[in-house]
Specification:
This is MBL fold metallo-hydrolase. Residues 18-202 form the Metallo-beta-lactamase domain. It comes from Hymenobacter cyanobacteriorum. Keywords: Hydrolase, Metal-binding, Zinc. Its cofactor is Zn(2+). By secondary structure, the protein is α/β, with parallel strands linked by helices. It has one domain (7-218): Ribonuclease Z/Hydroxyacylglutathione hydrolase-like (Metallo-beta-lactamase, Chain A), CATH 3.60.15.10. Helices cover 24% and strands 28% of the residues. It is built from six helices and 14 strands. A six-stranded mixed sheet has the order 1-2-3-4-5-6, with helices on one face. It has a six-stranded mixed sheet with strand order 7-8-9-10-13-14. The chain is globular, with a radius of gyration of 16 Å. The model has no long low-confidence stretch (mean pLDDT 97).
């Protein structure tokens, strides 16, 4: 039998918040999922679209780990560029998403265009594209409906704003709770193997083992 090709990750850093947008690529089928598109400017939008077109990828899913403004600025761009793409978000974060329009201008994003999810994410219900299956893990604390995506075959986590290199997500925004965030990290991330790579919503990638040993918030 031919070898099973892996899922690979391509990352982009967009907008004034230096937010990490990820393309999850199913190498066997060239289908991809776009996670947390933060592209706002025309140049950022073209960077994402150009990469997808140059690599002949087929956009299969739009996923949000959560719906704070820096992670959703490009949602409508994705849906208008690749019509019919399913857009999935945990239902507890739909109010967070809908609130963005009320403050986007104050944050310097007057051209923000809202988008509505077409489906829901839920813990224990995997999402699939091509031959890739992602486990959905519910990890609130930074946002009420925050989820992370775990791909066990490649020991990869797309973690949003839960765990960072030597840090954790902020909890002073509406719906945030420090104790809840620490509990989410303990149950949904620190239970994974040390070699698991975590791709966070900001900053460089890290590993579960590195953060278990050296993250001051987890000691």
């Amino acid at each position: 039998m031919p070898p099973v090709l892996p899922m690979t990750v391509a990352g982009f850093t967009f907008n004034a918040f230096s937010e990490n947008t990820y393309l999850l690529i199913d190498e066997a089928t060239r289908q991809c999922a776009i996670v947390d598109p933060g592209c706002y400017s025309a140049a950022e939008q073209q960077a994402l679209r150009g990469y997808i077109e140059a690599n002949e990828l087929q956009v299969a899913l739009l996923l949000n780990t959560h719906a704070h403004i820096d992670h959703v600025l490009g949602n409508q761009f994705v849906l208008s560029t690749w019509p019919g793409t399913p857009f999935l978000l945990h239902p507890l974060d739909v109010p967070t998403l809908r609130a963005v329009s009320s403050y986007a201008g104050n944050y310097g994003f007057p051209q923000y265009q809202p988008a509505e999810p077409t489906g829901e994410l839920a813990a224990g219900q995997p999402v699939r594209f091509g031959d890739t299956e992602l486990a959905v893990r519910f990890a609130p604390g930074h946002a009420p409906g925050h989820v992370i995506f775990y791909h066990e075959p490649t020991a990869t986590v797309i973690g949003g704003d839960v765990l960072f290199q030597r840090s954790i997500g902020r909890t002073d925004l509406p719906g945030g709770d420090h104790a809840t965030l620490l509990r989410s990290i303990a149950t949904e991330l620190m239970t994974l193997p040390d070699a698991t790579t975590v791709y966070p919503g900001h900053g460089p990638a890290t590993t579960i083992g590195e953060e278990r040993r050296g993250n001051p918030f987890l000691q």
